[in-house]
Amino acid sequence: MEENGNLFLNIKADDLRALGFDRFAVIKTSEVTFSPEVRQMCEVNRCGRYNTTWACPPGIGTLEECMARCRVFENCAVFSRAYQLEDSFDFEGMMEGHEQFSEASEELRKMIEGKFLMLSVEGCSKCGKCTYPDAPCRFPEKLSGSLEGYGIFVNRLAGAAGMPYNSGPNTVTYFGAVFF
Ligand code: SF4
Fold first, then answer.
1. Which among 8, 40, 67, 175 is placed 20 to 30 Å from 153, CA to CA?
2. Residue nearest to ligand 1 atom 8, measured at CA
């Protein structure tokens, strides 16, 4: 892979660095592991976003539908960023990192040219109040589903991409992916 060439579609490594992503790699979609267990973890709702927007289950569709959407594409660009926390109970720091990662993913979406499917962190806060579940998503073309919501084992995704899932004590690492 050429450092100054396109990593995927029209996106270069420097573009990802400028958005704050500190690790990235391109793998084959066939290396991405999908699992009903991950969807079951969503149902436990530890993140509090289950059944709240069109970006997460069940609104996002069945596991089979999610897999089929990804498998239309041959390749998967994985990107991540580690955020420093004050300590392992720094919930505010985790939420701040989550929001920053979501915003950086949105900026990346605006830069990409061509056909792709972007997945990122849980939930969607594009609208003041989500239409879910009473009316269709206002911006389906801009909706980034969550990696976990799509049933993707993020620690295995990180492993396949040669990226650390955990960046050490007092950090939180978020991941996103572009299927293309
Ligand atoms: S874009 Fe708006 S309507 Fe669609 S999932 Fe996000 S918040 Fe809900």
1. 8
2. 130
Q: Which helix (H) or strand (E) holds 60?
A: none
Residue nearest atom 2 in ligand 1 by C-alpha distance: 127
The pTM score is: 0.94
Report pLDDT digits (tens) over 55-74. Answer: 999 999 999 999 999 999 99
Return the domain boundaries, the chain.
6-179
Residues with CB under 6 Å of ligand 1 are: 53-55, 124, 126-127, 130-132, 137-139, 143
Say how many Å lie between the CA of residue 51 and the centre of ligand 1: 12
- Which tens digit of pLDDT belongs to each residue from 143-167? 999 999 999 999 999 999 999 999 9
Q: List Cβ<8 Å contacts ≥24 apart for 121-127.
A: 121/146, 121/147, 121/174, 121/175, 121/176, 122/47, 122/49, 122/55, 122/56, 122/98, 122/146, 122/148, 122/149, 123/47, 123/49, 123/52, 123/53, 123/55, 123/56, 124/53, 124/54, 124/55, 124/56, 125/99
